[in-house]
User: Which sequence fits this backbone?
């Protein structure tokens, strides 16, 4: 009993003398933990997060190579070239085979524009094209990290042999080709067959890029989806301590949220467009490859890695990156930017991300009555020229889907149509030619 009493006296003495100190230490540790958690929110893309990006790619379902995926696959035949419409399954099979090869670098070559086209259109070859230029760093993610290519070299197309192992990468901007010889080949490409859904095409220069131009009219299916309002807002609001400030501009209700000086977000309650601004996070992001990787990282941080969102284009040396919804391999366009994510690198270590609260949810049944026959590319270019557009001002032209929302039943109809880019703005050819300047 005496020993037990002495132990209790010592415990009381210890608590009285050191209890406050221990409590302060615990409080400091909790504070440090909470600070670290706050620093790991989407507004703080630190160098450590960039280093572990590969681990995060594996953790999420869709990695960087998927986001920066190919958008076209063309089989160069003897009499004509056929661009595959449902290309994704075949492209995935081709990439998986090439990834198993050891690619030995054989050199590069600068060509004239005509020689560049001839090389792309060589018979008995397959040409895989990206929606827009991707960096060598992305190429390594797609075709294997041991491929010898500088991180900041920009690539637009990859030519594969239907027999043999010579692979060529193409850079449209400088008409440059990069040559590789596949060795240690376990499985060749020649057994891969294209699908029956294809359209005859020619390779053309449009602006500064080579495109595949359909030489016959194309028949495409229209689609309908239920409109989806995703839970991105719920995820983003976790990092803001207050309910936001409400204002009205041009009859549109705007909510603004802030978190100190590092993060700011505005939400247009009328259109569903969200603008997220982060400051002080661009210290070591000054190369194209770094910007494209950071663009992917923003998709991870802001919960935008949906199955149908892909890289679409870059401008200003990738200081501006655009990601779009793709349906059956074609991009979706919308006047209010629904279905897009834009990542913009601003001056003074400022990054701005513009995204939409609305996307596509459940596809609705379709039938053959919903098929649309579209003109050839040449016919569309002639329409634009007749409406006053100089052909040299057309930066790109491609097939896509126009997003039309019926507000009564919240159903989005995707209509196949031609789109063209002028001054970095995408417009529907039909709408532009109908009113000669309006959309």
Assistant:
């Amino acid at each position: 009993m005496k020993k037990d009493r002495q132990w209790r006296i010592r415990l009381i003495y210890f608590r009285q003398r050191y209890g406050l100190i221990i409590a302060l230490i615990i409080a400091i540790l909790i504070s440090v933990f909470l600070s670290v958690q706050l620093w790991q929110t989407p507004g703080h893309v630190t160098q450590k997060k960039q280093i572990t990006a590969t681990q995060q790619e594996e953790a999420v379902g869709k990695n960087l190579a998927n986001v920066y995926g190919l958008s076209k696959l063309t089989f160069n035949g003897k009499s004509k070239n056929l661009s595959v419409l449902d290309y994704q399954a075949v492209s995935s099979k081709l990439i998986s085979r090439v990834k198993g090869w050891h690619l030995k670098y054989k050199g590069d070559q600068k060509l004239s524009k005509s020689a560049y086209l001839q090389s792309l259109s060589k018979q008995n070859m397959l040409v895989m094209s990206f929606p827009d230029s991707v960096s060598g760093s992305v190429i390594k993610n797609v075709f294997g990290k041991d491929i010898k290519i500088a991180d900041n070299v920009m690539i637009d197309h990859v030519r594969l042999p239907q027999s043999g192992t010579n692979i060529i990468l193409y850079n449209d901007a400088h008409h440059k080709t990069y040559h590789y010889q596949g060795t240690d080949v376990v499985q060749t490409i020649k057994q891969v067959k294209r699908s029956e859904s294809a359209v005859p095409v020619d390779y053309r220069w449009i602006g500064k890029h080579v495109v595949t131009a359909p030489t016959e009219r194309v028949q495409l299916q229209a689609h309908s989806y239920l409109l989806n309002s995703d839970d991105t807002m719920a995820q983003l609001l976790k990092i803001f301590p207050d309910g936001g400030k409400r204002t009205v501009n041009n009859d549109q209700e705007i909510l603004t949220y802030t978190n100190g000086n590092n993060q700011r977000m505005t939400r247009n309650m009328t259109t569903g467009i969200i603008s997220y601004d982060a400051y002080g996070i661009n210290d070591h992001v000054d190369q194209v490859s770094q910007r494209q990787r950071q663009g992917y990282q923003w998709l991870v941080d802001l919960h935008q890695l949906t199955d149908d969102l892909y890289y679409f284009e870059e401008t200003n040396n990738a200081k501006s990156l655009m990601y779009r919804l793709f349906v059956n391999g074609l991009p979706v366009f919308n006047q209010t930017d629904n279905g897009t994510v834009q990542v913009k690198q601003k001056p003074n270590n400022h990054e701005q991300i513009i995204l939409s609260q609305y996307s596509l949810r459940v596809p609705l049944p379709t039938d053959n009555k919903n098929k649309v026959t579209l003109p050839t590319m040449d016919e569309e270019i002639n329409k634009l020229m007749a409406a006053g557009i100089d052909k040299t001002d057309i930066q790109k032209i491609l097939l896509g889907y126009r997003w039309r929302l019926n507000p009564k039943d919240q159903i989005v109809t995707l209509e196949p149509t031609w789109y063209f880019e002028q001054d970095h703005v995408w417009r529907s050819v039909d709408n532009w030619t109908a009113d000669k300047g309006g959309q």
Q: What stands out?
A: Residues 64-202 form one domain. Residues 30-61 have pLDDT under 50 and may be disordered. The first helix runs from residue 2 to 39. The radius of gyration is 27 Å.
